[in-house]
């Protein structure tokens, strides 16, 4: 299988040119065709010599993301199910907000973290995506938006999989996204979400970026979190919180805690009070997420009034908290739902 062109950074493309007897500036022209003009074949790169285009075509391939399904919600959300070269499938979501278009990307085929309320873990982990396969999701979304003169303005790495278990590919993807000669997405408009892979959290702290960090916690204590998130047995809640405190102290940046509210499980007033005590004094924000119904799981959604009460208790304790706005509810836009349905059909 030929290397994927989107796997290469600008510097790597320049090095490839020099190694193949071409001037380094051709790497910059190629990068421009990929991310500014966004063509999907080397033949379309008309300011490159024909011989070089043939050499590139012989040496590299574009990522093949075959569109299996595209669902469009009445709120403007678009969900893609893409087929990969090895017959696996991944999901990518475009969410429209009044401040711009956000894309939610996937970093793995499936997931091994095992959160008991999530459809992404059904069937386990199949493989990591390459950085180019993650990049291609954004390029595909941007190509769709090009038709209406819109652009991807923000990225959330919150699709299927655990990005910090595919750390190197995730970071390579991020460097391409923020490059000023490429898509040039502002670092503060990108959020990477992890379930709490502690060694990678410390590694990310040292990256010296302005990219936002979000942590899925979903419980205020070790016992309940282990029940909901088996990964907590590897990286206990206390260690995750300590890594968060280190990140805040080192970077001076606010951290977001994601908390999926599950009816009768983790959504009682005492849970909110306990969470407030754990997070006291931290530069943080809590994003409350009404859990999505997954047929294979047995959880129910927290009643609306109880969601507001949970938020009220946090804010009374001076913990900033918001309730995530639901999008794409009518098209099964939550992580893994569309892929799970596709797997079942296959």
UniProtKB/TrEMBL annotation:
Query: What are the residue boundaries of the Radical SAM core domain, all occurrences included?
Result: 97-330
Main location, first listed in the record: cytoplasm
* Record bears the keyword Nucleotide-binding: no
Localization, UniProt:
Cytoplasm
Decide whether keyword Lipoprotein is in the record: no
Family membership, please give it.
Belongs to the radical SAM superfamily. RlmN family.
Task: Give the protein's recorded name.
Answer: Probable dual-specificity RNA methyltransferase RlmN
Q: Which gene encodes it?
A: rlmN
């Amino acid at each position: 299988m030929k290397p994927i062109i989107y796997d290469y950074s600008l510097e790597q493309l320049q090095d490839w040119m020099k190694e193949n007897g071409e001037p380094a500036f051709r790497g910059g022209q190629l990068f421009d065709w990929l991310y500014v003009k966004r063509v999907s074949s080397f033949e379309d790169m008309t300011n490159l010599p024909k011989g070089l285009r043939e050499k590139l075509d012989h040496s590299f391939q574009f990522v093949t993301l075959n569109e299996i399904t595209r669902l469009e919600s009445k709120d403007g959300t678009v969900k893609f199910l893409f087929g990969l070269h090895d017959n696996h499938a991944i999901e990518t979501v475009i969410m429209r907000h009044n401040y711009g278009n956000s894309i939610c990307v996937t970093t793995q085929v499936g997931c091994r973290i095992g959160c008991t309320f999530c459809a992404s873990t059904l069937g386990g982990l199949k493989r990591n995506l390459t950085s180019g396969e993650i990049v291609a999701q954004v390029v595909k979304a941007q190509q769709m938006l090009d038709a209406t003169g819109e652009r991807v303005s923000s990225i959330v790495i919150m699709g299927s999989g655990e990005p910090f278990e595919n750390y190197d590919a995730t970071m390579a993807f991020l460097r391409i996204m923020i490059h000023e000669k490429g898509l040039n997405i502002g670092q503060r408009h990108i959020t990477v979400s992890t379930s709490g892979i502690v060694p990678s959290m410390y590694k990310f702290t040292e990256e010296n970026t302005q990219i936002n960090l979000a942590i899925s916690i979903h419980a205020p204590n070790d016992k309940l979190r282990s029940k909901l998130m088996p990964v907590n047995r590897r990286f206990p809640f206390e260690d995750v919180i300590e890594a968060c405190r280190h990140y805040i102290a080192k970077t001076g940046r606010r951290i977001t805690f994601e908390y999926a509210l599950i009816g009768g499980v983790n959504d009682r007033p005492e849970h909110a009070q306990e969470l407030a005590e754990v997070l006291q004094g931290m530069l943080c924000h809590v994003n409350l997420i009404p859990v999505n119904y997954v047929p294979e799981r047995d959880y129910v959604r927290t009643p609306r009034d109880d969601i507001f009460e949970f938020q009220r208790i946090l804010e009374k304790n001076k913990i900033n908290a918001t309730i995530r706005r639901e999008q794409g509810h009518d098209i099964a836009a939550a992580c893994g739902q569309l892929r799970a349905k596709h797997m079942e059909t296959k």
